[in-house]
């Protein structure tokens, strides 16, 4: 069975600095998809960034980028120029072609002004 | 588009009572998903629908749980004979297609507290 592990329950970063959230996963499949979701306090979960496993190029979305290492089964999220609005729970997620999404336990990110 | 909505947002019930939650997906989204999120955990898949057909149910969905999507639009999730272990946030999400790379849009969730 596939698993997703986020080893950092909480992290803090100074406003305007860069922070990297870690995620590892375990799978025997070769075709899958990886996601980072953001869940702000008392607000809806939203998709931050996604990566197709067959693509070697790392995905980027404005200040958000990933470091996808397929062989190491690692999928970290880098947030550049951190802003107060980035404070949230961040979930790493894995999706195989059978359509189930498997989420990690999350990393709570604090932004220090 | 107003996004995915869920009702109620909060529900407090006594152990043994039945509860029903509603999810209204984004209009014209074919796929609708239910997840459960307990404190300190990520969401866990419960079940999903393609239009009105329920295609998969997780082992987490015991016999006390039932979900429907009668006309392929809104969905309901019912829990019978609630237990304290059912206390959680129940999330609904929808997507336009079933493509694996397709974004799932989440609702605000229904927080259930069983006393």
What would your notes on this structure say?
The complex is a heterodimer of chains A (113) and B (115). In chain A, 0% of the residues lie in helices and 54% in strands. The mean pLDDT of chain A is 94. Chain A has 113 residues and is an all-beta fold. The termini of chain A are far apart. In chain A, the strands form three sheets. In chain A, strands 2, 5, 6, 10, 11 and 12 form a six-stranded mixed sheet that branches. In chain A, strands 3-9-8-7 form a four-stranded antiparallel sheet, with no helix packed on it. Chain B contains no helices and eleven strands. With 115 residues, chain B is mostly beta strands. The A-B interface holds A 4, 32-33, 37, 43-47, 50, 52, 91, 93, 95-97, 99-106 and B 3-4, 33, 40-45, 48, 55-56, 91, 98, 100-101, 103-104, 106-109.
Give the helix/strand layout:
The complex is a heterodimer of chains A (113) and B (115).
Chain A: E1 3-5, E2 10-14, E3 19-21, E4 24-26, E5 32-39, E6 46-52, E7 60-61, E8 64-69, E9 74-79, E10 88-96, E11 101-103, E12 107-112
Parallel strand pairs in A: 2-12
Antiparallel strand pairs in A: 1-4, 3-9, 5-6, 5-10, 7-8, 8-9, 10-11, 10-12
Chain B: E1 5-7, E2 10-13, E3 19-24, E4 31-37, E5 44-50, E6 53-57, E7 65-68, E8 75-79, E9 88-95, E10 105-106, E11 110-114
Parallel strand pairs in B: 2-11
Antiparallel strand pairs in B: 1-3, 3-8, 4-5, 4-9, 5-6, 7-8, 9-10, 9-11
Summarize this structure briefly.
Chain A has 113 residues and is mainly beta.
> What separation lies between the terminal Cα atoms of chain B?
36 Å
| Elements of chain A, N to C (H/E) | EEEEEEEEEEEE
User: How far from one another are the termini of chain A?
Assistant: 41 Å
Q: What ranges of chain B have pLDDT less than 50 throughout 5 or more consecutive residues?
A: none
Helix content of chain B: under 10%
| Structural class by sheet pairing and helices of chain B | mainly beta
Q: What are the key terms here?
A:
heterodimer, A: 113 residues, mainly beta, 6-stranded mixed sheet, 4-stranded antiparallel sheet, 54% strand, B: 115 residues, 7-stranded mixed sheet, globular
């Amino acid at each position: 069975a596939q698993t997703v592990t986020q080893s950092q329950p909480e992290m803090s970063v100074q406003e305007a600095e860069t922070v990297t959230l870690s995620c590892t996963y375990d799978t025997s499949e070769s075709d899958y998809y990886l996601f980072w979701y953001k869940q702000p306090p008392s607000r809806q979960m939203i998709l931050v960034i996604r990566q197709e496993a067959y693509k070697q190029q790392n995905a980027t979305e404005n200040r958000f980028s990933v470091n996808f290492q397929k062989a190491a089964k690692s999928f970290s999220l880098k947030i550049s120029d951190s802003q107060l609005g980035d404070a949230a729970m961040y979930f790493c997620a894995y999706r195989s072609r059978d359509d189930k999404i498997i989420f990690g336990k999350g990393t709570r990110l604090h932004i220090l002004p | 588009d107003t996004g995915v909505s869920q009702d109620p947002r909060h529900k407090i019930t006594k152990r043994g009572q039945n509860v029903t939650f509603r999810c209204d997906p984004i209009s014209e989204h074919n796929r609708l998903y239910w997840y459960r999120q307990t404190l300190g955990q990520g969401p866990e898949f419960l079940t999903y629908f393609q239009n009105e057909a329920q295609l998969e149910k997780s082992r987490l969905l015991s016999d006390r749980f039932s979900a429907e999507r009668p006309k392929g639009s809104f969905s309901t999730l019912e829990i019978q004979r609630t237990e304290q272990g059912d206390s959680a946030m129940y999330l609904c999400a929808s997507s336009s297609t079933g493509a694996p790379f397709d974004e799932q849009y989440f609702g605000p969730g229904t927080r259930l507290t069983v006393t």
